[in-house]
Amino acid sequence: MLYCSAVYLYPLDSIILLIFMILDVDFVKYHGCGNDFIVVDELDGEVVPEAFKSVFSMKVCRRRFSVGADDVLFIVPSTCGAHGFMRVLEPDGTEAEMCGNGLRCVAAYLSEKFGLDKLLIETRAGLKFVEKVGDGWFKADMGVLKYKFRDLKRYVKLDFNDEDELIARRISFPLIGDIEVSIVDTGVPHVVVFLEDVDGADISLYAEAISKNKRIFPEGICVNLVEVLDDHSLKVRTYESGVWDETYACGTGSTASAAIAHKLGLVKSEIVDVHVRGGLLKIIVGDRLQMIGPAEKVFTGRIRIEV
Predict the structure, then answer these.
(1) pLDDT tops 90 at residue 6
(2) How confident is the model at residue 7 (pLDDT cuts 50, 70, 90)?
(3) Do 31 and 121 share a domain, yes or no?
(4) Fewer Cβ within 10 Å of end Cβ, the chain: N or C?
């Protein structure tokens, strides 16, 4: 349900009309390894008007003051015949092209809604095939790893040629100095940094130096701190742009970390166990990357909110 109100303000030399809406929004709360989402179904019609989607996300994602989440996932009709189109609205009001854990959660919602185990979901990063592989577990096609400058120059302001690979490059950053990083795209752009001890690392320092470095990354960028545990497993901590905080898991970040670790020979197995703060993801490395992980419905609800 939608309510509209108007407030007239009378300054000395003009009249200002302020319009706001009060929305009653049904939603479902999901999480994948602690990466949590507010899912809003708009397949049968718009629930949150387009002009208010950003401010809605900014308000409802606030922890302790509202529902709280890492993202709002709007499921809207597909433009190409898929089961749905996943739109990812961040807590800062921006829209991301993809979200790996969110993709599994949307698949879980649509699987229950339509009674299907195999789903095709449209995203701004392309079509994604997702398959239910167990009780609450889903395997998602994450596409191909992009690591050449031509595919990343929208996000990266550095002096490279189009065919240059941005893998294991030494780059100087404020606060942390000259370090080796890999810059890739697995639906959204990521920086991958290998460390000996990720638990002992100050991720906020890497966030300030890299993720919030608008000189090199004008739109910001996600940063993954990666520790190699053995020849088939990693530990990953991710600081996500848009959320502007460390999250309990990041599907695209775990995929990027596993793909780069495999490409550099740091892991040998084509099935890589990625241990994140909220659990375990499995990344299958091949011509196309695949991610296997849980998607759990937490609760359903309705919120009345002024936007």
Answers:
(1) no
(2) very low
(3) yes
(4) N
